[in-house]
Amino acid sequence: MTIRTRFAPSPTGYLHIGGVRTALFSWLYARKHGGQFILRIEDTDLERSTEEAVTAILAGMKWLGLNHDEGPFYQTQRFDHYHAVIAQLVAESKAYYCYCSKERLENLRQEQLARKEKPRYDGHCRHLSVPPTTTAAPVVRFKNPEVGEVVVKDLIKGTVIFNNRELDDLIIARSDGSPTYNFTVVVDDWEMQITHVIRGDDHLNNTPRQINILRALGATVPQYAHVAMILGSDGQKLSKRHGAVSVLNYQEEGYLPEALLNYLVRLGWSHHDQEIFSRQEMIELFELEAVNSAPAAFNPEKLLWLNQHYIKTGEPARLAEHLRFQCELLGIETQAGPPLAEVVTAQAERAKTLREMAQNSRYFFTEKVQYEEKAVQKHLTTEIKKPLSDLANRLEQLTEWQPTSIQAVVHAIADQYQLKLGKIAQPLRVAMTGTAVSPPIEVTVYLIGQQRSVARIRQVIT
RNA sequence: GCUCCCUUCGUCUAGUGGCCUAGGACAUCGCCCUCUCACGGCGGCGACAGGGGUUCGAGUCCCCUAGGGAGCGCCA
Question: Rounded to two decimals, what is the model's pTM?
Answer without folding.
Answer: 0.92
